[in-house]
Design a protein that fits this description.
The chain has helices spanning 25-29, 47-61, 69-87, 126-129, 133-138, 160-166, 170-183, and strands at residues 5-8, 11-14, 32-40, 43-44, 92-99, 117-124. It is an alpha+beta fold. Strands 2-1-6-5-3-4 form a 6-stranded antiparallel beta sheet.
C-alpha cells in the first residue's frame, strides 16, 4: 500500500519523517501560520482563496516563506497528486504550515537552520468525520440560543498580541473598553 508524503521545504518525505526541531519558533513560541482547506470530490475547495488568506497572515506576521503564492499552489497540487494513490477515493484535508524557523541562537543545532519551514500535507477526512457518517443518514436534533453577541465591529480580527500594541496607554485602554461596553 502506498504511504502518504509531506511536502517539507520542497522535498517529499514520508509523513513519519516530517519533523521540526524542538528549537523551532513554532514549538517554542507558537510562532507559525497555518491554513487548512478540504476537498470535495478530491478537488481542493477554493484553494486560491485559502492561499490568499495564508499569505495575508504571513505578511501580517512578517514571515517570508520563500515561495510566492503561485509556487505554493503548484506545490499543493503536486502534493495532492503524489498522495492520491495512498488516499484512494476519499476526500481529504490540505494543511499548509509555515513556521518562522529557529532563532539564530540555535542555528548550529537545528539541521534546517533558521529559515522558515513550509510543510504541505494531505490527510483523509474519513479520519475526522468517519464517526459521524450516521448523522448524514439519520440527521441530528439541535437547538441554538437566541442570546446576542457583541457586534463584529467591536473586536479586532488581529491576534491578541497585535491588539495590545494598539492600546499603548492606560487611558487609551479605558476609552476602548468603554466603547466596547457601549456597543455590546
Amino acid at each position: 500500500m502506498a504511504k502518504r508524503l509531506v511536502c517539507f521545504n520542497g522535498e517529499f518525505v514520508p509523513e513519519p519523517e516530517a519533523r521540526i526541531s524542538i528549537f523551532d519558533c513554532a514549538l517554542m513560541y507558537g510562532d507559525m501560520i497555518f491554513e487548512m482547506t478540504r476537498s470535495f470530490g478530491q478537488k481542493p475547495y477554493r484553494l486560491r482563496e485559502h492561499l490568499e488568506r495564508l499569505y495575508g497572515s504571513l505578511k501580517y506576521a512578517q514571515i517570508d516563506c520563500g515561495l510566492d503564492i503561485d509556487a505554493m499552489e503548484e506545490a499543493t497540487h503536486e502534493t495532492i497528486a503524489r498522495n492520491l494513490p495512498a488516499i484512494g477515493a476519499l476526500d481529504f484535508q490540505i494543511m499548509h504550515d509555515v513556521t518562522r524557523g529557529a532563532l539564530p541562537l540555535y542555528d548550529t543545532i537545528v539541521k534546517e537552520g533558521t529559515a522558515p519551514i513550509v510543510s504541505i500535507n494531505v490527510f483523509p477526512l474519513v479520519r475526522h468525520i468517519g464517526g459521524m457518517a450516521h448523522l448524514y443518514r439519520e440527521g441530528r436534533t439541535s437547538s441554538s440560543s437566541l442570546s446576542s453577541r457583541c457586534p463584529r465591529a467591536t473586536s479586532t480580527p488581529k491576534p491578541k498580541i497585535a491588539a495590545a500594541s494598539f492600546t499603548r496607554s492606560p487611558s487609551c485602554r479605558q476609552r476602548k473598553w468603554r466603547l466596547v461596553l457601549r456597543r455590546c
